[in-house]
Amino acid sequence: MGNRAASRRRAAGAVALAAVLMLVGSACSKGRGGSVTSYGVFAQKFRYNGMPASIKTGNIQINFSNRESFSIVHEMIVAQVPSGKTAQDLIESAKVAGCEGGGDCESQYLHFGEVDDVSTGATISGVFDLPPGQYFLACWQQGTPEGTDNGPTHLSIGMVHVFTVTP
Ligand SMILES: [Cu+2]
Fold it and tell me: What is the C-alpha separation between 40 and 3, in angstroms, rounded?
């Protein structure tokens, strides 16, 4: 979990920046303001909603909301899909022994940023610059609707969205 702690500290800086960016960002769920395209993505029933299957490369802002009906923390990690892998492969990778807690499983991927620790009812924004390729959003948190924090990683129960970035 040491890596996770460091990751969270880095994320805190990103969150502060995101808060500033939100002040100048568009209220639209998707629109072009300057050269940054923004997307409204929300988590509900352990799924990501609102992220297209394909986007163009360049600066993007993702406004990530947690819209669960119970108290829980989600995150939105942006990572590269290893060549030839599918969304189901990613889900399976989060089920293998030794991956409990998320850290070990999570670090096997190339990361391109994240929006961390989004509680129910919150929206936090992140800015990303993704080269063309295949990426995914995933959540390695382990909270449960019952309020415990030792459930399966959310990725392992399907909280993943694969998308393509085109030139
Ligand atoms: Cu989650």
Answer: 28
pLDDT in tens, 79-103: 999 999 999 999 998 887 666 545 6
Closest to 165 (Cα-Cα) out of 134, 127, 126, 137: 134
pLDDT tens digits for range 146-161: 999 989 999 999 999 9
The closest of 45, 51, 80, 46 to 64, measured between CA atoms, is 51
| Helix, strand, or coil (residue 133) | strand
CATH of the domain spanning 2-166: 2.60.40.420
The environment of the single-atom ion ligand 1, i.e. residues with CB closer than 5 A, is 74, 139, 141, 154
Written in H, E and C, the secondary structure of 113-124 is EEEEEEECCCEE
Cα 34 to ligand 1 centre (Å): 31
Adjacent-strand bridge partners of 94: none
Q: How far does CA 164 lie from the centroid of its chain?
A: 15
* Domain ranges, ordered by start, for the chain: 2-166
Q: How far is CA 139 from CA 37, 111, 133, 154, in A?
A: 23, 13, 20, 6
